[in-house]
Fold these 3 entries.
Entry 1:
Amino acid sequence: MKNISARKCTINAYLISCLLVLLTTLFGELFKKRLEPTNIVMFYLLVIVLVAIRWGKGPAIVSAVLSVLAFDFFLVPPYLTLSVSDIEYFFTFAAFLVVGLVVSTFASRVREQTIQQQTEKLYSVLLSSISHDLKTPLVSITGALTALLDKKSNLDEQRKNELLQTACEESNRLNRIVNNLLDMTRVESGGLRISKKPCDLRDLIGAVLEQLKDKIGSREIKISISGGFPEISLDFPFILKAFFNLIDNALKYSAGDSAVEIDATFDQTKARIKIQDHGCGIAQEDLKRIFEKFYRAQQPQNVSGTGLGLCIAKGIIEAHGGTVSVESEPGRGSIFTVELGLR
C-alpha cells in the first residue's frame, strides 16, 4: 500500500508540474499582445523553482524542458512550430534550458537535504533564504535572456556575449548559494565526515587563492609563513571551503586597493593562521554574532551575501578540533585567527 501511495504521489507531482507549465503558457497566450513574450520567461523560471522545492528534481527537470518547448511553440514567432525565425534564438533557448535545469537541480538538492534533516525549523529557514537570495541572480538571468530575445534591441555580437556571460556568472552564483546552504545543513546536523590527511599549508592557501583569482584581480595578498612550517592533519576539501570563506570575507569587506595579509606561525602543538584586512571593520554589537548563520553586519550595506560563509567556516574548523576568533576595530579592519592542532 505504501508503494502504491508513493507511486501515486510521484505521478501527481509530474501532472501538477505539467499543469503549472500549461497555466503559465495560457497566461502568456492571453497577454502576448500586451506584453513582450520574453516577459513570460520569469514566470516559467518561477514555476521551475517552485516545482523543485515542492516535488524535487524529476518534476522540476520535466517542467524546465516543457517550459522551453511551450515558450518556443506558443510564444515565439513563427507560432505553433518549434522552428525559429532567427538563429540567435537557438542560443537563447539553450541558455534558458541550461538555467532552468541548473535552478531545478540546485533547488531540489536543498529540498532533499532538508528532508533528510527532518527539521521543520531548518526547512523553513532554508526556504526563506532561498526565496530571498535567489531573487537577485534570477532577475539578472531573466534580464539577460529578455534582452537576447528582444528583436528590437539590435544587439551586436559583443553585447550578446556579455549577456550570455552574465547569465553564466549568475548561474555560478546560484551554485555557490545552494552549496553554502547544503554545507550549512551538514554543519548543523553534525553530518561533516572529516577524513584527515597531512596537508601542506602553502598548497592549501595556493588552492584558495586560485579559486579567488577573479575577485583578487590586481590586489596584493601578503603571505608570511614561518620557516619549517610542518604539515597539518586536515580534510583538505572541507578546510579549503573554510579558508575560502574567510579570505573571501576579507576581500569583500576591504577596499580594492588595500592588501589582505595571511600570517602563519606554529608552536609544538598548534598552527595559528591569521587573516587580516584593512577594511571597514566590525562594529562591537556585531562581533558577538558574526559567526551566526544568516547574520550579516549592519554596515556596509552594499556588500551582498547570505550570511553563511563565516558560520560554515567556524563549523568546519571546529569539526577539525580547532577554533576561529576575530578581533576588529571599526574603520581599521579585522583579524580572523584560526588555530588548528598539528595532528
Entry 2:
Amino acid sequence: MHYYKIPVFVPELACPFRCVYCNQYDISGVSDVPEAGEVEGLINKHLSTMPDNNCHVEVAFFGGNFTGINIIKQQEYLSVARKFVKAGKIDGIRVSTRPDYINDEILKNLKIYDVTAIEIGAQSMDDGVLLAAGRGHTSLDVKNAAGMIIKNNFELGIQMMTGLPGDTVEKAIDTAKRIVELKADTTRIYPALVLKNSSLAAMYRDNIYTPQTLEEAVALCAEIFILFEKVGVKVLRMGLHPSESFYDGESLLAGPFHPAFGELVMSKVWNKRIAANIKQNIGEELKIYVNPTQLNQAIGHKSSNKKHFSKSFDKVKYFADRSLKKDQFHVDYR
C-alpha cells in the first residue's frame, strides 16, 4: 500500500496570533488563499499522477488555523474534498489547526464533512516556551483538544517543534513524552528556523535568540523519533518541506535547515540501532543485514554510517535481506 497526501495550503488563514517563528507564505510558497474551485483542480491534478490501485489518498488542509476559518468557507473547502471521498477517489480528509480552536460544535461539523484526521499544532508542552513563542494557548488547551478529538473518533495528530525560544533538549523530550501520554496517533517534528519577516528574525539579529545547529537538531530529533517509535506514534514528517525561496536565500536567515533533514535523522537513528548491537569496539569485518527498503537509511546519508563504522572495522558490508521486515536488522562481526 502506498500512502499519498494532497496538500492544500491556506497560509495564515484565521490565525489569531503571529507566532515568533511564522512566515507561512515563504514556507508554503503560497501567497494567495485558494478558492474552492481551485482546490478541486488541485486535487484532480494530483490524482492524475497517482496509481489507480493499492494506494491510500488523503486531502490535507495545511498552513493555517483551519477550524478558525469562517464556517461557510470551511464548508466550501470540505464540500469539494468530500465529493472525492464519495466518489471513491480519495480515502480521507485531514485538517491542521490550533488546539484552542477545537470544541464540540467544530468537531460535529468536521464529522459531517467526512474529515478523518485532525492535527493540532502544540509545538511545545512547556507553557514558558509557548509564551515565548507567542502561541497564545497553553499546554492545557492541547490536552483538552486532544481529549475531545479522540472522544469523537478522529485520528489525532500532534505537531511539535524543537529549538524555540526558551526550549531545551530536556523540555523537547518532555513534550514528546506528553504527546505520547495524550495518545496521539501521529506527529510531525519541526526544528525552528529563522525566517525573514518573522519576529524570530529580529531576535536573531539582536542576539537574543540562537537557533539550533544542524547537528544538534538531527541528534535531538533522532532521540525523539526513537521515543515515538517505541510506543507506536507514527512520525509523518521531520523538517519543513520548503518553497523554492529557501534555496535562493530569499526567506531563510538561519537555523537547522537541510533539504534532506528527515534522511539525516533516519541515518542517525540507524547509527544508534546498529551501534547498540555491536559489543566490541574494533574488528576485522562487520556485516549488516536490513530490509531492502531501508538499506539506504542503514548505510546513511552520503554513506555516513558506513564511514562511521569503518573507523572500527576493516571491512563494513551491507546486505539487503527480504526475509527481514521493516525496521528489522541483523549484524555479524568478527
Entry 3:
Amino acid sequence: MMGTGPFAVPTFQALLAAGHDIPLLVTRPPVPTKGKPPINPMREVATAHGIPVFDPPSINTAEAINTVQSLAADLLVVCDYGQILSPAALATTRWGGINLHGSLLPKYRGAAPVQWCVYHGDPVSGVSVILLTPKLDGGPVLVQTSVDVDPAETAGELETRLSQIGVEAVLQALLQLEQWDLAQDPTNPTNGPGSSPPVLGIPQAAELVTKAPRLHKSQGQIDWTRSAADLRNQIRAFQPWPGSYTHWQRGSGPPLRLIIAAAQVVPAPTDPPSPASAGSPAAPGTLVRADHEQLWVQTGDGVLSLTQIQPAGKRVMSIAEFLRGYAPAPGQAFAWLDPA
C-alpha cells in the first residue's frame, strides 16, 4: 500500500479487513509541523496492525525500488501518496499498480480534484480507479463511481464521502485484475487455443482532460468582482484549506484579515425595483447590510450573505457574534490586498 493522507485510510482499512496480505506501507517522510508531532493517518493505521513503514524521500531511487521489489508483491495500491512513480518503480510488482483518484477521470487530473470540482460548482463528482502509468493520472480506467454533490457541501465533506465510496471501487478493481490474471494463464482450461487476451481498463479520452493543480494559500483571497455564486463555491471548495479570506477596511484603522467560513447567495428580488430605489449597485466588496444577524456584501454579480466568519487570531463565530463584537457598518468595504 502506498499512501499518506486521510483519503487513503478507508481503502487501507478495508484491504486489511478483507484479509489481503499487505507487507509494507510506503508513505511520505514526516514533515515538521511547528513543534507539533507530524500527523500521518496512514502511518498510524500501519503501526496499529504491525505493518512495517517505509518513507523514502523519493520512491524512484534505486534503493527504494530494490526495497519494494524484494517483497515480490503482486500489486501496488496507491492513493493520496504524493509522488509520481517511474516505470522502474511500477515494475517492482507483478501487476504494476492501481490508483484511487477523487474525480471522474479524465476530468480533474492532479493534486486537488475534489477542491476544483467544488470550486467550479459541478453537480456530480466521483472516484476512479486506474492502472498506473508514468503519466500523471493518465492510465486506463478500471472502475468509476459517480455521486451527486450537495450544493451546501464543502470540499472536505465531499472528500470524506468519496474516500468511503472509493473502497468498493478498489475492491472491484482487484476482482478485475484477478480475472484478467486468470485469463493470461495458459494452464487455465477456460483459455482455449488462439483466444485473445482481454483488454484491461478503458483508455481516457485525451480531449476531455482537465487539470486540478495543487492549491496555494494565496488563492484563498476573495476577489469580490466575481459573482456571488462563484464566491460561494470558492468558500466551499477551500474548506478546510486554504480557506477564503478578505480584508475589512474599517475606518482609519489597519485592515483586519477575515476568513469567510460559510456564505449563501442572497436571492434576487422577484419584483422590479421601484423608481426611488433603482440605481447602480454598490461597488464589489461593499457591505450593503449589517444588521439583524445579516452581513451582506455586494459582489460583481449579486449579493453574498456571510454566515460564519473568523477574524484574525480569533475563533470562527456566527454573524450575530461578529456584529456585536465588531460593529461593521453599511458602506464599509472588504478589499483585495496585493500579496506583494
